[in-house]
Amino acid sequence: MAKLILLRHGQSLWNxxxxxxxxxxxxxxxxxxxxxxxAGEKIKAAGIHIDKAFTSVLDRAKQTLRLCLHAAGQxxxxxxxxxxxNERHYGDLQGLNKAETAAKFGEEQVKLWRxxxxxxxxxxxxxxxxxxxxxxxxxxxxxxxxxxxxxxxVSAHGNSLRAIVMKLDNLSEExxxxxxxxxxxxxxxEIDSEGRPISKTEL
Length: 203
Fold this sequence. Notes:
glycolysis; 2,3-bisphosphoglycerate-dependent phosphoglycerate mutase; Phosphogly_mut1
């Protein structure tokens, strides 16, 4: 049975500084680099051979993928990049400190902007908007590879992965509010030939 491995990038500089990042390219921190390396070591220890990889076009996801595959001893994996897997665009909030934004607009409003399914931050995307680009790409490009029996690694972001996990785990719009994808932790789904998830584990 093929495996789908979802990996949120390691800690980025703006994760560390508690800023809204969105589509801004920021590098991994030394901790983020280590998280990516450890993810690869876990994949290697689990004996998982990666047949195909996908990543967003943002540097932190691409850097995570490179470090992860190198640590897994698998540096020649065919890879595709797509903006469809990018983090949600945070619009006017990009670059702002999350705590300062909560103090200005109220914690409940900022939680809605960050966690809800359909509420957009000013000038930005909701999770629903992110899903509208990430899911068609997932079903058109990624899942067919898994259904064909390939082990696939996806290096992406908190919200593009939330959109995918929401569908795989059959979560409601209310349940997805509490869904958090941790940095640098490989989430492994076993997928059958019909594209149905059979099991889910974290390495």
